[in-house]
Amino acid sequence: MDLIQVLKALSDETRLRIINILKGNDLCVCEIEFLLGINQSNASRHLNRLLSAKIVKYYKKAQYVYYEINWDITLEYPFIKEIIDNEAPKLNQCIIDNEKLKKYKSSGLNCDDLKKGNGCFCDEC
Question: What residues form DSSP beta bridges with 65?
Fold first, then answer.
């Protein structure tokens, strides 16, 4: 793996937010879109950049594609684990994303619900 490609992949806030919510969670692309408030095109572009750098990997389950951290790359580049474990969670937006992720996980919602437009956590719903 090329160090420059890895560093470039990590140099974007949205990509840091993605790896932040993937820490300990396999998430479908629709869940990533929902949690980060980004559209499918942006999610795919950022995920492709992370895939190219081998920071994330994916697997298919039924009609959904799930993404996860490729922990093997942290053996080659230990600083990636440091970023995932210690630096990204300090970013204000990552703190917000983690709170939204906790609410989502405890809600019992899934990809099918999100596809139907169900996924609001506001107090008014």
Answer: 60
